[in-house]
Structure formats: structure tokens, C-alpha cells
Amino acid sequence: MNDYIERYVYDVTRRLPEKEREEVSKELKSNIYDMLSDNADEDEIKTVLYELGSPASLAEKYRQKPRYLISPAIYDVYIQVLKWILPLVGIIVLVIGMVIGVLEVINEEMIDMASMISSILTKGISMGISAAFQALVWTTFGFAISERVNDKADERKKQEWKVEELPEILPDDKGRILLSESIIELVVTIVFSAIGILLCSGLFPIPFIIQSGETQIRTLFNPDFLIICIPAIVIMVLFGICECAAKIKVRRWTPFVCATVIVSSFVNLGFMVYLLNRPNIFSEEFIAFIQNLELNSVDLLRFMGTNRSDAIIILISIIIVICSLAECGKAIYRTVQNQQIQS
Amino acid sequence: MGNDQFQSFITELRRGSLTLAVLGCLKAPHYGYALLQTMQERNINIEANTLYPLLRRLESQGLLASDWDTSENRPRKYYTISEKGQMVYDELMTEWKKMQSSIDAICREDG
After folding, report:
1. Where are the domains of chain B?
2. Chain A residue with minimal CA distance to B32?
3. Which of A9, A218, A289, B64 lies at 20 to 30 Å from A190 by C-alpha?
4. CATH code of domain B3-110
């Protein structure tokens, strides 16, 4: 029956910023026990808890500041997510920017060191910073929206609540899925799929143009290949979003979450292997270009132009299969651990 | 006038004076529930779920000092008014008296 007190206090403090939880929890428990007689029975405990009101409304009183864009209750998660997303997006786009910088210089045929370096740096840094800024804006926006949605649910809980419905205390264990991790996964999935779709539809401002003497290559990939990539990416990202949504909702490695991970992995695996093993991935121009390269140029590129590229495709396919199986294996392992904790 | 609306006027009116009452009571150290009882004995109608968060807020604003007493079988957090709290209390009290006499005067004119 003390369980109700523990669960009540837990339900209040989980809505507070992490650094305040311990102190509030200790004090609130002490206060609740003070309000009870020495041999309090379950009914007395319930009376006191109802007197204190719903955990959601008590937590709000502890939080004081009624309105934040990002409230302290989820501020820690928000910061954790930003810590990952900003550098990740920033650095990846920085690298993409640098590559574009190189391509631009090559296209303009001014291959002296100074203009090369300046082009790489300006393109890389400007794109990196603007991407990081975009990531900041959209992450904040997403958090603000999700909080408004949760607020509505909380509003209802403030009015009607039952001691019996207090949440079970979730220990800090291996069966838990961190909210920040799921959100990072979701953002990364969406961002990279969006980049992929833009690239394939030719809308992304990265020109696959390589100029070498008189030959000019406009497309690296076969247009037919790119067209079938788009629906494949859309389907993969939908499955990915469902997987993340399940993780965000349940936040534990339940069999249901595990199943979504496995389904999503196999969908990804199927599409990627299928796409990779299609004939004519690269454009004819590009293959011709590579085959005409001088012997001393990059071996890998020559390799791709020949029939021996099959070997590379098989190798990449195997890597994808191994990664997917590892992902599923991890999910199953964590789910089994979670079942053991809960049983 | 709806009951809710009436209630919200009362809440608004009491909000500031509760701080004054809490600071006044805490010249002597109290733990949360004891303070609640003291205040209720003095006919100050405050609920536990308002008082406990209020204590925490006043502490974080530096108006109260606190100390965990672990000598008994259950630890209790005792609050006392701090130096800054005493200053704020004196200021508020002066203001309170001024306001009271002004309102009295106004209402007498009306009556």
C-alpha cells in the first residue's frame, strides 16, 4: 500500500526537471507520511493523495513558470537531443558542402591551391552552419508541438485521476528506451530520407557533374534507377517512422516494439539489396567516362566501371544484411532482458 | 457569477498574502505539514498542494533557509525565514498596512 505513495511521488517528479526530482521526491514523501497517522490504512493513504490532487496539477505547481516554449519537464531530453543532432547534421552537411566546393572548382577549371581551399571552406562552413541552424529550428519546433499535444492529455488527467491508475515506477534499467535516442533516430531517419529523395528527384543542388577535358558527365546514376529509388525511400522512411513512433510511445523493449524494429529492418534490407542488385545503376556516360580514364587514376572508379563491380555490390549487400541482422539481434536481446525484468 | 469565476477572484486576492503569512509563520522553524497545521489553526485557508510547492519556490528565491533533520526516525525538512526573507517580509508588511488603510478608507466612503 506504500506503493501508492511511491507511485504518486514518482508520477509527480517525473514531470519535473531531473535535477529537482530527488529533493522534491524526498520532501514530498516526508510530507505525505506526516499527513498520515501512524498506522494508516489504504483508505487513509488514498484520502491524503486525493487531497493533494492529481500528480499532473501538483507537478505544475512545483514547476511554477506556467509557460515555456520547452518546459523543464522535457528540457533535459531536448538538450540531449540537440547535443547529438546539431553536430551530426552540421558535420555531415559540412562535408557535403566541401565536396560541392571541390566539384565547383573542378568545373571552373581553376585548380590552384588557393581558390580550391577557399571554395571548400566557404561552401562547407556556410552550408554546415545553415544546416545546423535549420536542425535547431526544426527540433525546437517539433518539441514545442509535441509538448502542446501532451499538455492537452495532461489537462484531462488534472481533472480526473484515480490512485489505482498511477503509473508503475520504471526502474533505470536495460529494458528502457531513452526518449532522446528515439527522437534522434527519428530526426536522422527523416533528414536523410529527405536528402535522399531530393537527390534522386534532382531537386537537391548537388550537381553530379564532373568535367575532365572534353568529356562532361551530368549524371552519375542512371535516371531509371533514380526514379525507382524514390518510392522505395518513401516506403522505408514510413516504416522507420512507425518504428520510432512505437519506441517513443512505449519507451520499453516490449515484444511489440521489437516487432516494429524487425519489420522495419527487413523492409530496409529488402529494398536496399533489391536496388543495389539492379542492372545499370550508373549512367552510361559515367561508365564510359570511367572506362576511358587513364590507368593511373583512381582504381576504385575503374573497378566500378567494369563487370567486376558485381563483386563490390555483393560485398555491400552482405554488409547490409549483417547490419540488419545485428539490429534485429540487439532488439531481441533487449526485449528478452526487459521481459526478465518485468516478470 | 459562476462559482469558478468567484473562486479565481479569491485565489488572486489571496496569492500575495499567502507569501506574507508563510514568511510570518516561519520566524520559528517548521516542517511542511506542521506549517500547514499552524496556518490552518490561524484560520488561513491553504491547501497542502499549494503550500508545499510555495515553500520550495520561496526557498529557491532565497527567502527561506532549509535544513534536513535526520535525528528522528523519518527525515524532515525544516524551513526558517532567511535574512533576505526578513527584509522582504518587512517591506511587504509596510505595503500591506498601507494598502489596508487605503482600502478601508475607500470602502468607508462608499459605505
Report:
1. 3-110
2. A31
3. A218
4. 1.10.10.10
